[in-house]
Amino acid sequence: MINTENDKVEIQDLHLQAFGEEEGPVIEKMTAEFLLLPETISINVYRGLRIAGNILFSPFKLDDHPEKKCFLLAPLGVLPEHQGTGIGKELIEKGVYYLNHIGADAIFVLGHPSYYASRGFVQAKVLSPHHELMKHPEAWRMLEVKPGSMEGIGGASVAAEPIMDPMFWDTSGRPE
Ligand SMILES: CC(C)(COP(=O)(O)OP(=O)(O)OC[C@H]1O[C@@H](n2cnc3c(N)ncnc32)[C@H](O)[C@@H]1OP(=O)(O)O)[C@@H](O)C(=O)NCCC(=O)NCCS
What we know:
Layout: H1 5-35, E1 41-47, E2 50-62, E3 70-78, H2 87-101, E4 106-110, H3 113-117, E5 122-123, E6 140-144, E7 157-158
Parallel strand pairs: 3-4
Antiparallel strand pairs: 1-2, 2-3, 2-7, 4-6, 5-6
Bound molecules: coenzyme A.
């Protein structure tokens, strides 16, 4: 859970590789900024001595419900040579376990709808930051960590600074 400076470099490089040439550099920069914040939760899965996968969670605020303890999942990455072997699933499970332990209500994510649907994430009613850019609402998903905690909860939201740039929320370039 506590990352050394070496770990941080390895994690940044991992996301650079996982997301590839086009997306990788901006995700690497976002990761570096997240890892500077003490409130960021970082979880690794190792294969041998190497970090094979990493997931970050950051505090996520609901405008109308400041009492809710929510987190944004971003990024989630697995080294290309280890993709499809269950590490992504393991990282999400570890994250949910840890967030449950610290009393979290829910996790939000903007990602591949089918991937997150198969891990229990449902379409979110809370609006994403820069909601006006959300062309694929099915990609904006939520998982209750505390069952029932998000019933009837909606409204606007704000993510942590490293991911507030509108480019992260513009889904217009994604396939239908
Ligand atoms: C997406 C990613 C995190 C998944 O981790 P993983 O360890 O490869 O995935 P797992 O082995 O846990 O799960 C494999 C399952 O995910 C599916 N899957 C993998 N990548 C997917 C993608 N891009 N879109 C949809 N489904 C995907 C597989 O088909 C498989 O489905 P199954 O469980 O029904 O058989 C990983 O492939 C990755 O780092 N990709 C590049 C970075 C990225 O796009 N991250 C953002 C995630 S929103």
